[in-house]
Design a protein that fits this description.
With 462 residues, the chain is of the alpha+beta class. It contains 9 helices and 12 strands. The strands form 3 sheets. It has a 5-stranded antiparallel beta sheet with strand order 2-1-5-4-3, sandwiched between helices. The protein has a 5-stranded mixed beta sheet with strand order 7-9-10-12-11. 25% of the residues are buried.
């Protein structure tokens, strides 16, 4: 089923889709970032512990060897230091009598942290410390040795730093990939989950615009069959009720035409003999005639509305001089207002009967409820035709400028009808007549007061 949806519903669906996708993406990012951070911390701790443990065992073995060799003097300390077994990146140092015996890559005694040197040399305790040496971190392990001050082994940790940096970058890239995958999964899941909601929204929008045949496909996911079936049943009931009400209005209107015709004939007969009636009788005859006219207009409006509800209203386009039509209707209503025109010609293709009734209803609305027409204008251009009727009434509140075109809208804000006058179908019929011709009607505030009713139609040239 393919039915049009409104932009508001589409916007709401997009916001919901984005929220669901964002939830997936943020959730994936949080989980992957947390796992990556935990993995990095655990790996860093493990690798650092492994490196320190290995360096401590190696330094301890070298210190023991130095201690054993020094027990059989004489000893060449520089040769002894150079002969010690060391892992890659490690240097050995022997501090003896304040002198520094080590490889050329190692600086003097001041290169060692004073706290570490004091703990090993002065307090005669094994110690270790990680500190920066230049731009590179190093691990220094010191052991007190009998016969000399101490043995130190300095291990460069730059390779460990590079390994940890590679691990960090890899985990960050993995988190980014997980984020993108979560976003893709969220988009897929969102489309799948929200598809039934989209169908329901489109069907509801189609039904609200008058397409009562719109239905949901009950096949598909088992969980949604009951929802689709219930929705379709509800729409079936709604359609049946609308059609029943439309038939009722049409039938009642048709049935009322016979007694109305009889009443009209009786009133005409009595009017021809009005001279024989006294004052009260003539007044009663005038009231009866007015009510028959009002009743007749109501029946005609109901019949017209029922044609729209039944879907049998059809356009009959013909060449219409809208300015001349406007002038004739104003003269018919005794409104001495000039029609201001704008355009080379005011003749367009339109449904004369419907346009005439729409303008007549606007003029009648101004005369009966708003003190009469104060201005009339016709603009015919390539981009559209505009017809304007202004009145001198108190105006309509902005919140009520849409509801005035609803059926049976009454009250001060809905046309300012006096008691017992009108039932609220005049402006509703204006909207129906204009809408059938592809146009629209609206109401604006006029200056200095009053209302401006504006009909906009597509310009069709004959």
């Amino acid at each position: 089923m393919t039915v049009p949806g409104d932009s508001g519903a589409g916007s709401r669906r997009r916001r919901l889709r984005f929220r669901v996708m964002a939830a997936f993406a943020v959730g994936g990012l949080v989980v992957s970032a947390s796992l990556s951070a935990l993995s990095y911390v655990l790996s860093r701790t493990y690798l650092l512990d492994q490196r320190q443990s290995s360096a401590v065992h190696e330094a301890e073995a070298n210190a023991a060897l130095v201690d054993a060799v020094l027990r059989s003097p004489p000893v060449d300390l520089r040769r002894l230091v150079s002969s010690l077994q060391r892992s890659s990146g490690a240097e050995s140092v022997v501090l003896y009598g304040g002198r520094w015996y080590g490889t050329s890559a190692v600086g003097g005694p001041d290169a060692l942290p004073s706290a570490l040197r004091a703990e090993v040399v002065d307090q005669r305790r094994a110690a270790r410390q990680i500190y920066p040496q230049g731009s590179q971190p190093v691990l220094t392990i010191g052991f007190p040795v009998s016969g000399v001050d101490a043995y130190f082994q300095i291990t460069n940790l730059n390779d460990l730093v590079r390994t940890l940096r590679i691990l960090r970058d890899t985990l960050a890239a993995g988190s980014l990939v997980a984020f993108l995958l979560s976003l893709a999964i969220g988009a897929w899941a969102t489309r799948r989950v929200l598809r039934p909601l989209r169908d329901i929204g489109q069907a509801a929008a189609a039904i609200s615009s008058g397409e009562l045949a719109a239905r949901l496909d009950p096949s598909g996911d088992e969980e949604l069959v009951e929802l689709a079936t219930g929705f379709n049943t509800m729409v079936d009931s709604l359609q049946a009720r609308i059609e029943r009400d439309a038939r009722f209005a049409s039938d009642v209107s048709h049935e009322l035409r016979s007694p109305l015709t009889t009443l009209r004939s009786a009133v005409e007969v009595m009017a021809r003999r009005g001279d024989s009636l006294d004052g009260r009788g003539r007044r009663a005859l005038e009231l009866l005639s007015d009510e028959v006219n009002r009743f007749e207009q109501l029946v005609e409006d109901l019949l017209e509305i029922s044609r729209y509800d039944a879907g049998v209203a059809r356009l009959e386009l013909e060449a219409v001089d809208v300015a001349a039509l406007f002038k004739g209707l104003l003269a018919e209503a005794d409104q001495e207002v000039p029609v201001v025109t704008d355009g080379d010609t005011t003749t367009i293709l339109a449904d004369r009967r419907r346009l005439e009734q729409a303008l007549r209803n606007l003029i009648r609305n101004a005369v009966v409820h708003a003190g009469g027409v104060t201005a009339a204008r016709v603009e015919v251009g390539e981009h559209g035709t505009v017809l304007v009727v202004e009145d001198r009434g108190p105006g309509i509140a902005p919140a009520d400028r849409t509801t005035v075109f609803e059926r049976f809208a009454r009250g001060a804000a809905a046309g300012r009808r006096s008691s017992g006058v009108g039932v609220g179908l005049g402006l509703a019929l204006v909207a129906e007549h204009v809408g059938l011709q592809g146009g629209s009607v609206g109401v604006e505030e006029a200056r200095p007061h009053g209302c401006r009713f504006v009909i906009r139609l597509p310009t069709r040239r004959p």
